[in-house]
């Protein structure tokens, strides 16, 4: 097992990199990793130096030659073994995640198990990569369309879901026959290193998976600029995604899953209780630190006051606690002071411009919360699009609510954003459902539920929310090049 009883992070994963199938001490300066619930250091990571990144790229390129030629069934078997190894150690890996990220232990364990599911899903997809035979306009010719792995993938992953958002890239890469270098967020590196340890258990060959650590602005940017990295798969802010796109010195394949600022529309025909439950879950789960969080809610005026009252009461009932000490808490600590500060700024801005505080608005009281980044789930009502909460992605436990009078108005307000990742609709009238869902300019629309992304369907955004797809068969195809082979065989000439 990874985790000794007296520590949430195993000592062997502190201060190390994972390159060419082995853990090794990093040469760079030590970067502290802090438990956001307590403020206490749980370990350090090394800032990867240029020569170490070069070694990781070289290892991945060497491994690509054999891994890409391994038949799909054997790659699938390796992914199944990886999924099994992760599931067996879910409890210990969850403790690592909670210690560095802050989410409640039960929620962290659920994320680890979803990572295991991703391994099994892409293991099955690996064996279903089919080419095509394309008809020609001349007799005697045949065109074959083949799919071949891109090469070495550089995966730059965020801190909010440190297992799943590594897994989507890792599993699709390996299923396609690519090799990968993972650069996890400096706030949550140990989950990625624990995944690397599981690849050893699964017998995945040296160099196929590598993990380097350090700040994204340095180590991540070095991967973007490295000529030996063929594709960048990034999840994070729209600003950083745009910088990556603009700063590639060579032409590279990119998958960018970026910001959200996701709306929810509640029409007059909605099931009010169901809508309130969905808003609370998707607004406050993981303390709102998720790209598909409900950020802003538009409610039909006849339901507006009832909805606001019930959502506020639901928010007030949610529990906030240290996720290691209270595994089933609704919210743990926020991951750092940065998203907490942004949440507080958005609340101040909304209240100064006339919003009404319905629930939350402050940190929970008590000694247990003194040293951590805790905040109560917060609802502000009577909002307008002059407020940051309605026009910027908060990435914290805050939702803004405002009324609407017509469906056209609701759709226009929902679309009034540079983002287009996910949106939500609660309605029982089929006319409402058809009119609103067809008008929403988003890559994902969830109706009467808040699970906008599922593993076997494509997940991606529009506008400034990114390019490319994860999940599903489409997520796997992001890791292939297409090759057209045109053959003259002379038959039928």
Automatic annotation (TrEMBL):
The keyword Signal is assigned to this record: no
GO MF assignments: oxidoreductase activity, acting on the aldehyde or oxo group of donors, NAD or NADP as acceptor
Organism the protein comes from: Aureimonas frigidaquae
Assigned keywords, A-Z: Oxidoreductase
Name by which UniProt lists this protein: Aldehyde dehydrogenase
Taxonomic superkingdom: Bacteria
Domain Aldehyde dehydrogenase: 27-485
Protein family according to the UniProt entry: Belongs to the aldehyde dehydrogenase family.
InterPro entries linked: Ald_DH/histidinol_DH (IPR016161), Ald_DH_C (IPR016163), Ald_DH_CS_CYS (IPR016160), Ald_DH_N (IPR016162), Aldehyde_DH_dom (IPR015590), Aldehyde_DH_Superfamily (IPR050740)
PROSITE patterns assigned: ALDEHYDE_DEHYDR_CYS
Coiled coil, from the record: none
């Amino acid at each position: 097992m990874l985790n000794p009883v007296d520590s949430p992070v195993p000592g062997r994963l502190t201060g190390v990199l994972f390159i060419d199938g082995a853990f090794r001490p990093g040469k760079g300066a030590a970067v502290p990793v802090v438990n956001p619930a307590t403020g206490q250091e749980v370990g350090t990571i090394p800032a990867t130096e240029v020569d170490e990144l070069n070694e990781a790229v070289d290892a991945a390129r060497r491994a690509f030659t054999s891994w890409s030629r391994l038949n799909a069934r054997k790659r699938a078997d390796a992914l199944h073994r990886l999924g099994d190894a992760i599931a067996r150690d879910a409890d210990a890996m969850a403790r690592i995640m909670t210690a560095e990220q802050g989410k409640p232990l039960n929620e962290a364990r659920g994320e680890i198990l979803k990572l295991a599911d991703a391994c099994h899903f892409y293991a099955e997809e690996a064996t279903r990569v089919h080419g095509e035979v394309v008809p020609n306009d001349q007799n005697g010719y045949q065109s074959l369309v083949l799919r071949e792995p891109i090469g070495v993938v550089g995966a730059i992953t965020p801190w909010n879901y440190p297992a799943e958002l590594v897994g989507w890239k890792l599993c699709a890469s390996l299923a396609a026959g690519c090799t990968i270098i993972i650069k996890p967020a400096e706030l949550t590196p140990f989950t990625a290193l624990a995944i690397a340890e599981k690849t050893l258990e699964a017998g995945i060959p040296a160099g196929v998976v590598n993990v380097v650590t350090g700040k994204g602005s340095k180590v991540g940017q070095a991967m973007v600029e490295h000529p030996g990295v063929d594709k960048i798969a990034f999840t994070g802010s729209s600003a950083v995604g745009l910088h990556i796109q603009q700063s590639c010195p060579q032409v590279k394949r990119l998958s960018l899953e970026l910001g959200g600022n996701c709306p929810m529309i509640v029409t007059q025909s909605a099931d009010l209780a169901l809508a309130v439950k969905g808003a609370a879950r998707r607004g406050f789960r993981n303390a709102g630190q998720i790209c598909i969080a409900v950020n802003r809610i538009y409610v039909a005026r006849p339901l507006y006051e009832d909805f606001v009252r019930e959502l506020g009461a639901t928010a007030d009932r949610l529990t906030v606690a240290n996720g290691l000490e209270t595994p089933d808490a609704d919210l743990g600590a926020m991951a750092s002071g940065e998203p907490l500060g942004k949440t507080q700024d958005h609340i101040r801005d909304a209240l100064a411009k006339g919003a009404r505080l319905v629930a939350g608005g402050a940190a929970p009281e008590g000694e247990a919360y003194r040293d951590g980044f805790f905040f109560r789930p917060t609802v502000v009502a009577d909002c307008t699009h002059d407020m940051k909460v309605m026009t910027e992605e908060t990435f914290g436990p805050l939702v803004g609510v405002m009324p609407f009078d017509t469906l056209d108005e609701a759709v226009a307000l929902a679309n009034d954003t540079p983002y287009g990742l996910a949106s939500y609709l609660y309605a029982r009238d089929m006319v409402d459902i058809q009119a609103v869902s067809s008008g929403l300019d988003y890559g994902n629309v969830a109706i009467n539920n808040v699970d906008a992304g599922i593993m076997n369907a494509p997940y991606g955004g529009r506008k400034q929310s990114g390019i490319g797809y994860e999940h599903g068969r489409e997520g796997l195809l992001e890791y292939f090049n297409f090759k057209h082979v045109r053959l003259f065989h002379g038959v039928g000439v």
